Amino acid sequence: MSYIAEGYNSFETKKTPSGTVKYLPDPKSVIALIQSGKLKEHILLVQGGTTTFLAPALSMGAIGVITMSGAPESHLGILSREFQMPCVMTTYLTDSDSRYVTGGNNDAHFAAIIKALEGKKVQLHCEDRETGRIAIVS
User: Fold this and answer.
1) pLDDT, tens digit only, all 138 positions of the chain
2) CA spacing 20 to 30 A to 109: which of 6, 18, 101, 134?
3) Alpha carbon distance, N-terminus to C-terminus of the chain
4) What are the helix (H) ranges across 25-95?
């Protein structure tokens, strides 16, 4: 299996959720997704591990999360373990040298990840203790 992206694994699990990636940039987008009734069809893509506005989606049964920054010790890492929801953090595209830089300007890095993943059907693979992987599903 080839992986389009990798990152830190929040916790080791055999769950391999599949869904269409939905980028959620703000609280309004989270509420709209919840109200659509289609939350469980999506893997949620957010900018950081401190994205607290995602909490309502987690408590309502989100199936997986991808973050573009943050570590397993961050807010979303902790919540993903509590909810036993696979979470790949500080994601990078496997065919790119671009990586998240703490304190740097990461706009181009984030834009490339959003462009590569949003709207794509993916599956999260979090069975490795350290690395979470994201595969495109056809």
Assistant:
1) 899 999 999 999 999 999 999 999 999 999 999 999 999 999 999 999 888 899 899 999 999 999 999 999 999 999 999 999 999 999 999 999 999 999 999 999 999 999 999 999 999 999 999 999 999 998
2) 18
3) 12
4) 27-36, 55-59, 75-82
The one-letter amino acid code at 31 reads: I
As a whole number of angstroms, the distance between CA 16 and CA 121 comes to 13
Helix/strand number for the chain, H first, E second: 4, 7
> pTM of the entire structure?
0.96
The residues near 111 (Cβ < 8 Å, ≥ 6 apart) are none
How many degrees, rounded to 5, is the angle at CA 79 between CA 56 and CA 75? 95
Distance CA 108, CA 33 (A): 25
64: tokens are 């997986």
Are β-strands 42-46 and 65-67 bridged in parallel, bridged antiparallel, or unpaired?
parallel
- Work out whether strand 18-23 and strand 5-9 pair parallel, antiparallel, or are unpaired: unpaired
Distance CA(127)–CA(117), nearest Å, equals 21
Distance CA 31, CA 52 (A): 13
Tokens of 68: 């573009």
